[in-house]
């Protein structure tokens, strides 16, 4: 077996133990004589998986009884429309912090269905940093403040969440969900496409607080209402059975490996090592995010002297077993995506490769 170090931004690397467990019980799930993907979503086998996955999300994140955990289809992108549709009534509006593609998309979709105000944007600086608190123009009457905790394409991450008074957060945590512990109290709604830190593509985790659920509109098609999915325990229609099952395994892995505090410790080590290598390269590798406070510990975006050199780096790295390092097609360059499942050893080996590459080609 030859597994590479997989730096894909999502779908992305999953813990090998998880893949092995899935493989081992794929044909006959816990003596049921069938695979979990052949079982009824209303049967006892899958129901146990669903309930346990919900409980694990709550336990790991410290979400109390006032939060509902939902597993929805449509990707994180559906949430860009579904959230404002549900939460905003005529005359109401939400604030948005524009920090890149996924925030921009969320703003565009929200404007189709409701009123969206941009509280701050760093677009004029090519999203190379996050807005500072003193730059936020917040509406105290906003129903919620939407922001993206980690900007997968631009390599920025909020390390201190914006202060928004009593206005609840709606947060897109698609690319850093459970990367580290956080206080859930200010969050009215969190959503995350699973395909980075949580499992395979196909399910979106939505965690919604009761007061937000209560204010959701009723005059919407059933599939687009959070209430439908909360009332029916994510089984109004057939839920994405397989991704939920794999997420269950990933969350068990997370718990077994020390939970969010331990994830943070390893993620900080990985990020510190990679950023110090970049900063110590004398400009050979350049981090695109100038403000150290804004740097992401999930997606590290790098430029080199020329596009040809970047191409050579990506190709040589792939040949050496480091795959998926190409930057997003909209920005180019190099991107090192190192979610929870990427071990510290992966980054240690990558930085050794980077130093060697610089010596040979610098
Ligand atoms: N938000 C963020 C932060 C993302 O990184 C992505 C995908 N890379 C999305 C939203 C869109 O996710 P999906 O493809 O699941 O709709």
Summarize this structure as a short list of keywords or feature phrases.
362 residues; alpha/beta; seven-stranded mixed β-sheet; binds 4'-deoxy-4'-aminopyridoxal-5'-phosphate
Describe the secondary structure blueprint for this structure:
Elements: E1 5-6, H1 16-24, H2 44-61, E2 67-72, H3 75-87, E3 93-98, H4 101-113, E4 115-121, E5 145-148, E6 150-151, E7 156-157, E8 169-172, E9 187-193, E10 204-209, H5 210-214, H6 226-231, H7 241-256, H8 259-279, E11 286-287, E12 299-303, H9 307-319, E13 322-323, E14 334-337, H10 344-361
Bound molecules: 4'-deoxy-4'-aminopyridoxal-5'-phosphate (PMP).
4'-deoxy-4'-aminopyridoxal-5'-phosphate binds next to helix 3.
Can you describe what's shown?
- There is one protein chain.
- The protein starts with a strand and ends with a helix.
- The model has no long low-confidence stretch (mean pLDDT 97).
- With 362 residues, the protein is an alpha/beta fold.
- Helix 2 crosses helix 7.
- It is 36% helix and 16% strand.
- The longest helix has 21 residues, at 259-279.
- Strand 3 (93-98), helix 4 (101-113) and strand 4 (115-121) form a beta-alpha-beta unit.
- The radius of gyration is 21 Å and the shape is globular.
- Strands 2-10-9-8-5-3-4 form a 7-stranded mixed beta sheet, with helices on both faces. The chain has a 3-stranded antiparallel beta sheet with strand order 11-12-14. The protein has a two-stranded parallel sheet with strand order 1-13.
- The protein has helices spanning 16-24, 44-61, 75-87, 101-113, 210-214, 226-231, 241-256, 259-279, 307-319, 344-361, and strands spanning 5-6, 67-72, 93-98, 115-121, 145-148, 150-151, 156-157, 169-172, 187-193, 204-209, 286-287, 299-303, 322-323, 334-337.
- Bound molecules: 4'-deoxy-4'-aminopyridoxal-5'-phosphate.
- 4'-deoxy-4'-aminopyridoxal-5'-phosphate binds next to helix 3.
- 4'-deoxy-4'-aminopyridoxal-5'-phosphate is lined by residues 10, 75-77, 102, 148, 152, 172, 174-175, 193.
């Amino acid at each position: 077996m030859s597994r590479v170090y997989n730096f894909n931004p999502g779908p992305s690397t999953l813990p090998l133990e998880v893949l092995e467990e899935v493989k081992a019980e794929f044909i006959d799930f816990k003596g049921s004589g069938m695979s979990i993907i052949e079982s009824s979503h209303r049967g006892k086998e899958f129901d146990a998986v669903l309930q346990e996955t919900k409980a694990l999300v709550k336990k790991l994140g410290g979400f109390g009884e006032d939060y509902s955990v939902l597993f929805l289809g449509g990707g994180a992108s559906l949430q860009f429309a579904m959230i404002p549709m549900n939460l905003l009534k005529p005359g109401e509006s939400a604030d948005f912090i524009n920090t890149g593609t996924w925030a921009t998309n969320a703003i565009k979709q929200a404007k189709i269905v409701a009123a969206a105000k941009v509280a701050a944007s760093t677009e004029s600086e090519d999203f190379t940093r996050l807005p500072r608190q003193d730059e936020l123009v917040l509406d105290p009457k906003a129903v919620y403040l939407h922001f993206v905790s980690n900007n997968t394409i631009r390599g920025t991450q909020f390390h201190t969440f914006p202060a928004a008074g009593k206005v609840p957060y709606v947060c897109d945590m698609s690319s850093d969900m459970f990367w580290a512990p956080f206080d859930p109290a200010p969050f009215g709604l969190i959503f995350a496409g699973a395909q980075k830190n949580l499992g395979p593509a196909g399910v979106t985790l939505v965690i919604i607080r009761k007061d937000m659920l209560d204010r959701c509109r009723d005059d919407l098609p059933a599939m687009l209402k959070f209430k439908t999915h909360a009332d029916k325990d994510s089984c109004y229609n057939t839920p994405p059975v397989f991704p939920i099952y794999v997420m269950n395994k990933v969350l068990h892995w997370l718990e077994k490996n020390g939970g969010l505090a331990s994830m943070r410790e390893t993620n900080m080590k990985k990020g510190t090592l990679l950023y110090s290598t970049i900063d110590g390269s004398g400009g050979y590798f350049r981090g695109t995010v100038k403000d150290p406070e804004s740097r992401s510990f999930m997606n590290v975006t790098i430029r080199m002297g020329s596009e040809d050199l970047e191409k050579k780096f990506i190709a040589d790295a792939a040949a050496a077993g480091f795959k998926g390092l190409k930057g997003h097609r909209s920005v180019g360059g190099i991107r090192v995506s190192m979610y929870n499942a990427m071990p510290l050893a992966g980054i240690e080996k990558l930085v050794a490769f980077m130093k060697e590459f610089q010596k040979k080609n610098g």
